[in-house]
Every structure is written in C-alpha cells, then in structure tokens.
C-alpha cells in the first residue's frame, strides 16, 4: 500500500512538473519573486534511503561541490538544498562538469546536472557554468511544494524527471558529509 501511494504521489508530482518542464526553468529565471527565502531546515531529516554509494573526489569535483554550496548560499537556501543539489550532481555527472559526449550523450544533456538546452535549462555555455546550472536546479527545486520535507530522491526526481528516479537516494550520505565539511569553509 505504501509503495502504491508513493508511486501515485510521485506520478502526480511528475505530471505537475512535466506540465511546466519547458516553461519551468525559463519562467523561474524571469520571475525574481521566486527567490523568496524558505525557513531553515535540518541538513538531513531522516536516515538516508537504501544502500549508500561513495566516490573519492578529485580537485575539480571538490571545486564543483564548493560552487554548488556557494550558489545555494547566494540563493538564500538552507543546507538541505545543497545536499539535494550535490546528491543530484553526484548521480548525474559524479560532480564533473560534462560537455558534449558525442554518442555517449543522453540527448543534449550537459554540465553538473545533465540539464538540456532543448528543455529550457539554458544555453550550453550557461549549463556548463556551475553557478548557473546550480541556480537553475535550485529554482526548479523551489517550485516543488514541500521539497524541504520530501525524501531527497523524490525532491531531486521532481526537478530532474530522470529515467532512474530512485538513483539519487544512494548519494544522500556523501552529499550530507560534503555539505557538513564545506558549508562553513
């Protein structure tokens, strides 16, 4: 029953988001009122879902973690938003700012979040800018009602609309650890 309810809720959220997928990121950039600051929430509200993955980071990946955190702070969002953003980037690109990968590309997906110019996320130059791509992701996240209290994977999936919606959960602990390590540095 719980699984059916969860999938139903995700379907409704997915449909609601899918309706705005083309206008969502573009509209978010055009509306400064979207930048209202939410109340602070805990970095991690519950035990991470499922088995957790972890990778070692090189200097470039660590710089991208710091860029995501800086963009989150600049947007006036709490640490939880940075955790969701970093976990999403870990899943989408392993925190590597990916350019065009030829035949290995997923459509026209680029950057830390594998955002698509054809879906309104921005130009290829914008999407491969860590601050811009994080800000675009965060603006999408802020459009999700109740994102602060959702399981990480549900919040990330509602923004990203991935073919693998549960994959984000595996990165929650590492993302939480990275935010704890770099938020005040």
TrEMBL record:
Keywords: Signal. It comes from the Bacteria. This is Peptidoglycan-binding protein. Residues 1-23 form the signal peptide. It comes from Micromonospora ureilytica.
């Amino acid at each position: 029953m719980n699984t059916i309810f969860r999938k139903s809720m995700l379907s409704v959220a997915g449909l609601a988001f899918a309706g705005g997928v083309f206008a969502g990121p573009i509209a978010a950039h055009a509306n400064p009122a979207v930048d209202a600051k939410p109340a602070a929430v805990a970095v991690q509200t519950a035990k991470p879902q499922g088995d957790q993955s972890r990778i070692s980071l090189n200097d470039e990946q660590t710089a991208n973690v710091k860029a995501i955190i800086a963009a989150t702070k600049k947007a006036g969002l709490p640490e939880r938003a940075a955790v969701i953003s970093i976990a999403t980037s870990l899943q989408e690109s392993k925190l590597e700012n990916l350019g065009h990968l030829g035949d290995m590309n997923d459509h026209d997906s680029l950057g830390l979040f594998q955002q698509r110019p054809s879906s309104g996320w921005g130009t290829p130059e914008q999407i491969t800018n860590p601050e811009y791509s994080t800000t675009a992701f965060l603006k999408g996240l802020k459009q999700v009602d109740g994102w602060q209290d959702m399981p990480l994977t549900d919040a990330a999936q509602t923004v990203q609309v991935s073919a693998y919606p549960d994959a984000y959960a595996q990165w929650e602990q590492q993302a939480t650890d990275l935010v704890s390590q770099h938020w005040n540095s």
